[in-house]
SWIM-type domain-containing protein (Penicillium cinerascens), 486 residues
Amino acid sequence: MAPPTRQFHRLSIGQDMPASRIPAEGPVDPSGGRQDGGNDSSSVESESEEESEDSEESSADESDGGSKVRAHSGITYDLSHLDTESEAQAMVGLMGEFDVVNCRASSEGFDFQLLDRPRVHIGPDAPTCTCSTFQDRPEGACQHIFWLLDQLHGCFLSKPPSAEVALSQDGRPRVRPRIEDLLKGKLEAVANQLNWQYLRNEGDSRTTAMTRVEKVRDVLSAFSPTILPEDFRPDLVETTTQARTAEQCVVQGDFEATIFRLAVHDDGVRSSLCKAMPAGACAAIYFDKIQEHSRRLLSDFDRYCATGEIPSAPSSPGGGPLLVDQVLEELRRSVSRIRSHISIRAPYGSESAAKALVFILDAISSRNKDPLDGNTWGRTSFQGEDEDQRNLYHMLIGSEDMDLDSDADLFVLDALDALAPGSLYQFIDVLRDIRGKIEVNRAPKAFLVRLGALVRSAESASASGVGSGQKRPAVGNSGGHSKRSR
């Protein structure tokens, strides 16, 4: 039977190049000459020695076994240097489409996790892949390597090279600088351009992103209607510094702990979980849970103040009586968590975060009263405090006689400031109502000024169309999360 690549001879696939490129130093045309005006453009330099050695072979006519293909990056590759099996793998890779789940840089090189388990490593030695094709034939390259290297090289080209680029058996284009040199310090920019998730190493103080262990907690806790990732199985302590095999991840009699360990140590398990519960869904679920927790907390507090009924966990810390100090602490903690997770989860969940914050602010703006007023069980004080000290509105928002600085930490408003105005436009009416209520309640001037600025920003975003027509990154509620976007 004829080699499978014969049927692809003279086939060319065209596709527009990405609008922007990652700059590389010393742009050189693959043919060996410098590009005109090449300060902000990038390309690759052919390995002159290899070209001279293979000039006779590369000039072979296609009918004699040569093959050329234009890949999705816009680069045209000369496959005549490859053996039959490698040529078939190159064709599948250069003409195919794969999804990168995430990528990261390390001291050994660069790792790219593809959907459905394959992981490609690029370093000073030949690229490797964990797929069965490469494992059966490690002296060559698999379709994943050919595809990935084309994607990466395409990021450094301002325009497709004028000459065909020869491919080596290990999947590398015969060009200089090599891709691992081009990627140094620029993988994050490449990932952003290609819309891939970039993972920083644990312990990197430059980032607020979740570590791998935190991400696993986030995904697994999303399946619970009430538990937040911070509170998910605190007994499960794991580290990625020491590798575990699948067998070593098994915790006898504890399926949840086993899945947790597998997701931390096995890229395939983690990728599958992230497919089932993507980042957008996790973000929406997280903020929805905090809103629901705050609603139950305030509802239980109101009922306790009115009747003396002790609420049940988890809205009551420890499951005992709800005292004012506990409620204040829980509400401040919830707002602080939302504020920190707005940046951690960006660009996901902004709508849910805004909804939770506006709900809390609205609920507190309606509580400028003594919570024990009119109670049926004869309580006049919790712990000897006065009326103002158990007034949630007074304690969290304040009164006009309070001298607050313009840059003071203002309850909820500082967290709302962390959101783009487009995230608030649909809550304009509620924010206006809140402003009206706290004006009547004589809130501190600094609080009124800051809230007024937020309302004007939301109104401006609404008038300019910012946010209109935007879809929520993940649709979900505490009941089922039936529809999620990736």
Notes: Residues 279-307 form the longest helix (29 residues). The chain is about 40% helix and 5% strand.
